[in-house]
## 1
Amino acid sequence: MALNTSYGWSGWARRENCFAPAITVPIQKAARLLTKADVVFRDSLVSDEILGLVNRDAEVIDVGKRCGRKLLTQEEINSLLVSAASKHEVVLRLKGGDPLVFGRAGEEIEALRNAKVEFEIVPGITAALGAAAAAGISLTDRRAASQIVISTFSRGTEGASMDWGAITSTTTLALYMPGPDYAEVAHRLREGGLPDDLPCVIVSNATGPEQQIRWTNLAKLASEEKLPAPALMIVGRVASQKVQEISKAFWRNEANDRTMPRSAVVS
């Protein structure tokens, strides 16, 4: 199970003997489980405020990863979850955001299922939604966007193989973990055919006390001052503070494109 004051309440726990009604608000369920936990496996981004809600008699184990530094391998975390579930009634896996989005939930769920450990997932608010709310952005503003793509920014040979050309001017791109090299991000997106004036907003520590928001575009992104992690980029027409003006121009161009005569070459 996981929760975080910045991005929401999320994650999973070994099931208890008594089940809450289906209409229970996830935040209430998460808070209740925290107070009843025997063991808590926490990630690095979980705030002190949330940790303060944990049962004082519970064992709290840090299994987080920050900036590429791992305390434990994923396989070791999986083993610890299975082992703790065999010994305790309530075991919590505490994460920030929603564990089902870039939270390695699949590997941990598979380990629990293979060990025949019953569990439940308490959903949370993923970073893209928290960052959008912090910036006052509608990710699916119908005047400027027709689709959302949620991705991480991969570097090296893996990044070179990504199809950035699939991102269009009507796509809202939520880019997790963009890293400190904004120039590389800008280059990759522009190389994929996105225009220099495409808006971009960088949100650091979204909804937290140290939140920072930077409004820019692809042309200026490379020269922007780097914001501290955790950060997320929202790229697309919706990431402008003047969405209405941009959307009018876009749809006007789309209408012109539809009325222009088209020619075909037959060989």
Note: The chain has two domains: 2-125, 128-247.
## 2
Amino acid sequence: MAVECACVLDPTTLVATPTPTLGPCLPLAGIVADALLARGWPIKRVRRVLQTVGMLGPAACMVAAASPLTEGDPAAASAWITFGLGLNALTLAGVSVSHLDIAPKHAGVVFAAGNTSATVAGLLAVPLTGVVLQATGSWPLVFGITAAHYVVGAALFALWVGDKPLPQDG
């Protein structure tokens, strides 16, 4: 299915924009977390809130990118995806550092296990996306599945996040 670009931007620019946008957003996650902790927020609440915003925000942006709001406007869809990726930077103050909370002695190993799992999931997601697109031709479906994944992940993290070292870390 071919998509015509009626915008003045080169389609390559639209694809390349989200990743460099993430860079300046990354330090903000730590700044926000530090500010909340300085105000007396418990670690668990900081992790929970930033992870939830960092996942539900991109989910909403994915839905917006595939909605009638952006129909026929790749630049608008790219802007939504870029904004969502910026919000996703908040997860650095959530899941990305929670290993230090629950396994301070073995945080590297716990992080590596989680990162490996995420990498495998990412490797599977690309061909599965191709299968869904080939079968349906629907980007809104692909973005909807991605948004649902964000929502389920946010809910599970909020439910299971810990802030105390596990006994097994002893």
Note: The CA atoms of residues 58 and 85 lie 6 Å apart.
## 3
Amino acid sequence: MFKFVVLLSVLATALVLVPVSHAAGAVNAALPTPAIDGALATARSQQTAVVAGGCFWGIQAVFQHVKGVISATSGYSGGAAKTAEYEVVSTGETGHAESVKITYDPSQVTYGQLLRVFFSVAHDPTQLNRQGPDEGSQYRSVVFYSNVEQKRIAEAYMAQLEKARVFPNRIVTQVVPLNAFYPAESYHQNYAANHPNNLYIVYNDAPKVAHLQRQFPELYVVR
């Protein structure tokens, strides 16, 4: 992602960039509600969800604006603890994917609703081992499930979307068990919020948050 930032900085001296979202391919409207989902809890509590879909800056930024989300943390999942470092993960040889751990209140938002946001505006689930300008297996699309219920909801929703043919291409998102989540370095946390004028954020991530607000006004919160 950093090479892309440098390239944009050079290009910006010669042309004006128009922000364009890479999320959800050609889909410009919110995806259908999951047919299979858990009900809203009757009491406040905390649950977690871990997803991956390109650079974690944008995924984190989106979920930080979702109702019921308590926190969203950038990190790494899919590989070993000893390789959970940005420079090592960036080689694409660690098994890790840049991921985001979402801590949420299930009395405010369901797991299925989070997945709907993930597939609608947070990323393009039809891109294999890349997302927008970023290439490599560390940018693959993944749902890391922590229990059987999350696996059931994720697989059912993906099947629902495929059957409805809401994307022009096949969904390539992996649904795999979560073995561990390793928080990323501190400078990666809240990156979009801390660097709103960064050209990578302006071009790739800010439009995702704007699409969240437009497509999910009932879930969008200002933070």
Note: Confidence is low (pLDDT under 50) at residues 3-22.
